[in-house]
Design goal:
It contains 23 helices and eight strands. It is α/β, with parallel strands linked by helices. It has four domains: 94 residues, DnaA, N-terminal domain (GMP Synthetase, Chain A, domain 3), CATH 3.30.300.180; 185 residues, Rossmann fold, CATH 3.40.50; 72 residues, Helicase, Ruva Protein, domain 3; 91 residues, Orthogonal Bundle (Chromosomal Replication Initiator Protein Dnaa, Chain: A), CATH 1.10.1750. A five-stranded parallel beta sheet has the order 5-6-7-4-8, with helices on both faces. A three-stranded mixed beta sheet has the order 1-2-3. The longest helix has 18 residues. It starts with a helix and ends with a helix. Bound molecules: adenosine-5'-diphosphate and magnesium ion (MG). The site of magnesium ion has 4 residues, from α9.
Length: 469
């Protein structure tokens, strides 16, 4: 074994040592269990799996309990292997799954076992052995195309539809929450539907590493290699994870070459381009650039609005356009956050009733909105306000006291207080070293003016909107 390989494994050992306390295994169990309803079907889950509880993890044995011996036997024959697989995927040191009986556990209301068994069979058929489960929502039909993602989308569609290999690999990169995983799953679903004979394997780079480490540990690398080299389409998500993991990288490099040589498609996603990914071997880097490298840019306002509209249609909920516009303006960082915000206001209105308005949205999303607002800087405020009033940005720092300059400066201070997290003294420093009392006075004065002077009120509102969009 090379030193590099030993290094990867070493990381793994440390990880398992650190998490050997039972709490983290309880958490592991909770998160695995939370996937059961989707994975095995609601009915199976309710009848058989919901009552299962974590007991302990000792010496490679992961012990869970069922409330009756009947249920224990059912779980042992029908879902134990699958559950063990899920646990191992997250924690390769788990070797055995034991199901014991604990009569104190509560039994949930029993469903009919007939439906439970049939839904179990259908859902198990979807599960790849070496790949990960695909999210049913992540299909091309649900992917909204805009300027920022049209290249990546077109390339993904091309690869999914064509039975020939046009570019190998397809490398998709972009920031967090911009739709890389959604596109990857869409490709996989599409190929499965249109070319059911082609073997598609999708998994994250992290999972690839875990499987590789497990193969090393169980001296099973031959079958590991065979498994990965026999697929028609290999898709690796979040490739950046492989940076600096030399042994895994090397193994991947060989797999990659073997597949490309056979003209089998490889699709990779990462948060940076091959040229910018740190910790990649040179030969890997250049090989990755051989195919098509497609990037996903940050979203535009129009795309965000389009996504929100498509989401509300999917959710079959009525949200006023003004609220969607407000969200698209305010939450520009990434689509995951945007979706989360929409889900929250919809959930809130269905829980407490009432229609969704901009005010209720502001109330429910206080924290998210504040985090997004924080991205406005004082410098930007000074620049925009100066532009608006046709004065020089340097006047924001100057000692001039004429009204035409002092008033915009006060407004900029007010906006700095309202839109950033900066304290009064910090704001004062950025306005030519004024003290906090001056800033406080400015905030008070502008607040009053906004109530009494319509022009100023509208000006400030407009500036606020511009700065937040
Ligand atoms: P990434 O993998 O780039 O971090 P994801 O693919 O997980 O991002 O996307 C985050 C969320 O945003 C997902 O729920 C996804 O469905 C949604 N999303 C991203 N891009 C789009 C799009 N163009 N149209 C519709 N939904 C999108
Ligand atoms: Mg992703």
């Amino acid at each position: 074994m090379t030193a590099q390989k030993a290094y990867d494994i070493d990381i793994q050992e440390k990880k398992s040592d650190a998490s050997s306390d039972q709490n983290s295994f309880q958490e592991l169990w909770n998160s695995v269990k939370s996937t059961f309803p989707k994975l095995f079907g609601e009915a199976t889950y309710k009848s058989w799996l919901a009552p299962l509880a974590f007991k302990e993890f000792v010496g490679g044995r992961f012990v869970i309990a069922a409330p009756t011996s009947f249920m224990r036997d059912w779980v042992a024959t029908n879902s134990k292997k699958k559950i063990l697989g899920l646990l191992q995927d997250l924690h390769p040191t788990i070797l055995v799954l034991d199901v014991i009986v604990d009569k104190d556990l509560k039994i949930e209301k029993q469903g009919s076992s007939g439906t439970a068994v049939s839904s179990l069979n259908t859902s198990l058929a979807d599960i790849e052995v070496i790949g990960s489960r695909l999210e049913p929502r992540y299909v091309f039909d649900n992917f909204v195309v805009g300027q920022s993602n049209e290249l990546a989308h077109a390339a993904a569609l091309r690869v999914a539809e064509s039975s020939q290999v046009h570019f190998n690999p397809l490398f998709i990169y972009g920031g967090v929450g911009l739709g890389k995983t959604h596109l990857m799953h869409s490709i996989a679903w599409h190929i499965k539907k249109c070319h059911p004979k082609r073997k598609v394997v999708y998994l994250s780079a992290e999972k690839f590493m875990y499987q590789f480490i497990r193969a090393l540990r169980f001296k099973d690398t031959v079958s590991f290699k065979e498994k990965f080299r026999s697929v028609d389409v290999l898709m690796i998500d979040d490739f950046q994870f492989i940076s600096g993991k030399e042994a895994t990288q090397e193994e991947f490099f060989h797999t990659f070459n073997a597949l490309v040589d056979q003209n089998h498609q490889v699709i990779i996603s990462a948060d940076k381009s091959p040229t910018d990914l740190p910790g990649l071997e040179e030969r890997m880097r250049s090989r990755l650039g051989w195919g098509l490298v497609a990037d996903i840019h940050p979203t535009t306002y129009e795309l965000r609005l389009g996504i929100l509209q498509s989401k509300t249609e999917q959710l079959k909920v009525d949200v006023p356009v003004s609220v969607l516009e407000f969200l698209a303006h305010k939450i520009s960082s990434n689509i995951r956050e945007l979706e989360g915000a929409l889900n929250r206001i919809v959930a809130h209105s269905s829980l407490v009733g009432g229609i969704i308005t901009i005010e209720s949205t502001q109330q429910v999303l206080r924290d998210v909105l504040r985090a997004n607002d924080r991205r406005v800087t004082i410098e930007e405020i000074q620049r925009r306000v100066a532009e608006h009033y046709n004065i020089k940005t340097s006047d924001m720092h100057s000692a001039k006291r004429v009204r035409t300059i002092a008033r915009p400066r006060q407004i900029a201070m007010y906006l700095s207080k309202a839109l950033t997290e900066a304290s009064l003294p910090e704001i004062g420093r950025k306005f030519g070293g004024r003290d906090h009392a001056t800033v406080m006075h400015a905030v008070k004065r502008v607040t009053e003016l906004m109530l009494n002077d319509r022009v100023i009120g509208e000006d400030v509102d407009l500036l606020k909107k511009m700065l937040q969009s």
